[in-house]
Each structure stands twice: as C-alpha cells, then as structure tokens.
Amino acid sequence: MILLLGGTTEAKQAAAWLEEAGLEYIYSTRTEVKSEGKGKYRYGSLTVEGIKEFCGVNGISYIIDACHPFAKELHATAASLASEIPVIRFEREFSKRIKDPLVHYVDDYAAALIQIKQLGYQSMLALTGVQSIPHLSSFWQDYPCWFRILDREYSIDFAARYHFPEKNLLFGLPQEKSEEIELFNRLKPEVIITKESGLNGRLNAKTEAAIACHIPIFILIKPELSALFKVVHNRQELLNSIQ
User: Fold this and answer.
1) DSSP string over 140-186
2) Which CATH number fits domain 2-92+223-242: 3.20.20.70, 3.40.50.720, 3.40.50.2000, 1.10.540.10?
3) Over the stretch 110-123, which tens digit does the pLDDT of each residue have?
4) How many whole angstroms from its chain centre is CA 131?
5) Among candidates 55, 78, 98, which has minimal Cα distance to 205?
6) What whole-number distance in Å separates Cα of residue 116 and Cα of residue 151?
7) What is the pTM of this model?
8) Cβ(102)–Cβ(217) under 8 Å?
9) pLDDT, tens only, 198-238
C-alpha cells in the first residue's frame, strides 16, 4: 500500500498514474477535499507519531510526498520515516529566478516585512495563502491589505480566527497574466507578496503582471527538500521508484 500525501495538482497526477499502474494507495490531505480517485481517502493533520502508527496499521510500503512546496511541517514529518519507509518526493517544475529591480527574493516573512516596512509601503496584496495571515499581522493590522485565499470553509474560518477583515478577502486561484494585471490595477497595492510556488502556482504570471503594473513583488524562496527524499519529476520516474 502507498501513502500519497497530497492536496495539489501533482498529487492528482500521481493518483491517476498509480491507478493506471494498478497500484493501491491511500490519498491523504490535511483538510477535507473532494477526492475523485479510486484510492482510499483520509484527511487530517499527521504528527510524526501519528504517521508512524498510520503506516504500521495500513501496511504502507512507500510514501509519496506530493504536497505544496511550502508544506514544511508535513515534509519534515514524511522525512522522519525515511529510514524505515522509502519517501518519494514528486516535485513540480520551477522557473528561473527573475532579475528585475521590482522583484525581491526573501527567505521568510520576517525578512520580507523588514524590507517592506523600511521601504515605506503602506498597502499590500498577499498571494501567500490563508496560512500567512498570522505571519503578516504586523502589517495588515496597521495598513490596508488583501489576501487571496481558497473559497472554502476552513480558509474562511482560519481568517476569522485572526480577526482579519472579511471585506479584504479575495477568493480564487492564481490566474493568467492578463487577469492578474486586471486585479492588480483594480486594487492598486503598493507592494505584492507571494511564494516561489513554481509553474503550477503560476508564479511567472504573478511576477510578470507585477512588473507590467510597476508594483514591487516580494517572493518567498521555496524551502530546501530533505536529502532523505528520492526526488522525481514525471510519471516514469515515479513508477520506476515504486515498482
């Protein structure tokens, strides 16, 4: 049995490939989503002890980590089992970093906020997801800020828990460059913050739209992967790592 850690486009691709190969799997996500695959499904956070117990009970022989690049806690949890169970990381594609005066790459939220405040920006569009609301609270508590989040109950409840203004929540997914330009021109934020989320996260569209609108954009650099993972990038590599 294979444990597929997902919630991303990559996870759906991996699930389809496993089904084509006739391999049994359990699809796992942190929050409840609609699962259309043929594999078993479960949701809820997994601690190190929790995932060990789950793998033992369900006879897991491989773990495929197809989670978002910034799901650091889950990556660490999966890595904790690498000495006992092979952990395969299905990694998405990332474009080359852009060199432009408007584009700033930063290590974390704290580094981004230091620069943003030093430069005197007083409004922000955050494309970093609902989980970043507490990390950016020292900005949005003082200045206008919009967060684009998924239109689902978990995300709305999470934002409310931190008392973020509901009127400043934008619902939706990353868009094409032209649609991002329309959004940026409508809101007119002084600065944009996003994550190095790769091609599936449409980072290029966000960055190019920001440059076209002459808006500075800060990009959080993706976390380094554990050296314990076997990294694959396509169907053949994934199946070869299992069979």
Assistant:
1) HTTS-EEEEE-SSHHHHHHHHHTT--GGGEEE-----HHHHHHHHHH
2) 3.40.50.720
3) 999 999 999 999 99
4) 10
5) 98
6) 28
7) 0.84
8) yes
9) 877 889 999 999 999 999 999 999 988 889 999 999 999 99
